[in-house]
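Reopening this ticket.

The earlier resolution said the output was attached, but the attachment link was broken on my side. Pasting everything inline this time so it's all in one place.
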Amino acid sequence: MTLPTRPDAAGIDRLREVLRSRERLLVAFSGGVDSGLLAFVANGVLGPDRALAVTAVSTSLAPSERADCRRLAHRWGMRWIEVATAEGSRPEYVANGIDRCYHCKSELMEKLLPVAEDENAAIALGVNLDDLQDHRPGQAAASERGAVFPLVEAGLGKQAVREAARLLGLDIWDKPAAACLASRVPYGTAVTFSTLNQVASAEEALKRLGFRELRVRHYGDLARIELGGPEDLARAAGADRDAVIAAVKDAGYRYVTLDLEGLRSGNLNPGVLDGGARA
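Inline output:
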């Protein structure tokens, strides 16, 4: 039977039922809407004694996202810890092939598994139904190591997750999606600390200028900026042009470009690069 994906209170109830079936749970918590909803509801259903939120900290996590995790964990009364991951030490990750996410998630799971064993808990990731249709090899790495996907079990897609978060009064319900910083680097270009730091610096500077939805795609000396809507694009090319240029150049880029198509999540993925539709 196919579960409905309507964005209503029934989705929250289904998620609660799924979580009640788990004795103890470790939630990989990145501070985004998906993992945020999962961590919040798990904390409510299981309580802090049986639910633990864990944030993986590395160069691929933007500083503002790490700060958001800390803020939300405190506000929601969750038991929360950080663990350091070292995906940058894995040659396959640095090489940045189309399976990069597999090696990144493998590193995450290997760091979470000992914590989960100490907690006698299952590891839960904030994967939703729509994610299953995208190019996300990391999901396979997580599944192979026993991770569970409660949002999928509850039949929740992206829209339903956001609506559930809104109904629960979570201030992240309309937070822009924030993929890991390595997703800004075209496949085949090495993912290094300096590259990720450069991307993070440029994006943080643009956020301080008031741009909420954005990506800075890295092409060596050139930054390709994707913004969330025509209004932002007009502002970046008009009133805030000099500030945008300065912000990105201060991060280390020599050339600053605006993508006229705007923000397209996952547009460096296979099937998009070659002109095909995004899966």
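Reporter confirms the inline version is readable. Residues 76 and 176 are 20 Å apart (CA to CA). Residues 100-119 form the longest helix (20 residues).
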